[in-house]
Every structure is written in C-alpha cells, then in structure tokens.
Amino acid sequence: MIFNEWLEDDTKTILFDGGMGSEIIKRGLKPGKLPDLLNIEEPQVIRSIQQAYYEAGSEMVQSNTFGSCYLNLKNHNLEEQIVEINQKALEIINSIRPINHLIVGDIGPSSVFKPPIGDASIDMWQSSFKKQVEILNSGVDLWHIETISDIDEMTAAIRAIKEVSSKPIISSMTYKKTKRGFFTIMGDSLEKCLDIQMNEGADVVGANCTLGSNEMIDLMKEFKDLTDMPVSIKPNAGKPRLEGTTTIYDQTVQEFTQDIIKIINLGAKIVGGCCGTTPHTIQEIKKKMK
Prior knowledge:
About 45% of the residues lie in helices and about 20% in strands. It is of the alpha/beta class. The chain has a single domain, classed as Homocysteine-binding-like domain (TIM Barrel). An eight-stranded parallel β-sheet has the order 1-12-9-8-5-4-3-2. A two-stranded antiparallel ribbon has the order 6-7.
C-alpha cells in the first residue's frame, strides 16, 4: 500500500488537494443545493476540478462525497439516491486518477447533532456512515473523515469504517482558537480529541477548515506537543467574507503557501487546503516543497 510507504518515509511530505466546495460554487452551484448531486447532474464539473488537482501536484484527491452519508442526504430528501450519488463519485474520480496517485474517500459530517440540539446518537451516526462506506470501499485507497466538530461523531465515523474496511483513516476535526486553546464548537479540547482518535485506531490525525493558515501554525505546534502520530493539516485560505451572496477569501496564494511551508517544517506529514484554496494553490505549494 503506497500510502503506508509514504507514512513510513521520514523524508516524505504528502501533498493533498485543496477546496472542493468552494471550487464548485465558483462554477455556479445554486445556494442550498448539495454539491454531491453534481456527480449525477454535471459530472464534467467534478471531473475537471479533481483532474486539475492531480495535475497541480496533489498526490491524493478526494471523492466528491463530503455530504453523501445517509443522514445528510436525508436532510436533502436524497436518501434514496445514496448508492447512485456515491457510485457516480467513484466513477468520476477513477476515470482521471493518474498512476501512483491515490483516491481518498471523503466522509463529511452528518449535519445531525446529539441532544440537546438534536436527537443523534453514536449508533445512529455509525449506521449512517456505514451505509456510505459500504458503497465507497471498493473504489478508494484510504479515508478522510473531515470537518467534524463533535468527537462522538468522529468516533462513530471511525467505527463505521472499521466495520467495513481495513484501509487507512485520516481523522480530521475542525477547531476554533480560544483564549484557553483550541476547541471544537462542541467544547472538545484538542487533547481530548487526539486521545480518542488514537484509541479508536485512526492512522493519521489532523485538522481542516474553520482556521486560516496562520492559526493552523499555532495548532500544529500543539499537535506536535501532544502526539507522535502523523498529522494532516488543511487550512482555509484566510477568513471568508460575504460580498452580496458571494464568499470571498482575501488571503493571497503566496501568504498561504509560506504558512504551509512553516507547517511542514513543524512536522506535518500531509498538507493541503480547504475552503478558498484552488489548484493554483496546490501548484504553488508543490513548487515550494521542491
């Protein structure tokens, strides 16, 4: 398994992809529409984005399945299309994956919360994620559980994958910076999250979204104080702002890239970008890494 070889190579930093949702929005996604539905309706859009990331230097690119677990699809009245949406995602990315590059099964949050906000439980989450994993497992090389803000939901996702698959798992939470340190919006500390992720058997721990690259430098320092595990970092391109209905990311590619190099020098094993980053961002990171 090439991913495991990369993890064991102390000289290797793995270059991941950049933002998918923000790239789809640029191409005219209507507000409120699930980006994953484009796997069926406009596969050429998804294919072009993923191909651009591979060509820019991403050694692994995610399937367009961030919102395709059962519970999230149910929120969009699309649960009956769970097989088609996930299978189409695999068909698209498999059609353009270069040799010796990897396909990452993207697992995003369920959009359902536990009490007192909602009625979700670990068992409910796990069942939802398992349905998705069973469809994707045959077509991916590894997994990325990302943008999770509740450690109990992350636990459910890891367990769901392990029920079905033996492929490596990148377990990535989303944090905010507070005066007391880094916490999820549900109040889970970085240390607590790392302990649980390691105990549940994640192969890589990490963070993505919410934070910009500058704040991720500080977060990376804390990661290395708390764990010897491989770390994946995918920041946003700065803080977003709205112009009308358009989301704008003002950070320059040069600034972002300089921060990513600092994050690599602090010991990150996997780097890439989240919202607002583009194939050009990845291309510039690749140049700096060389």
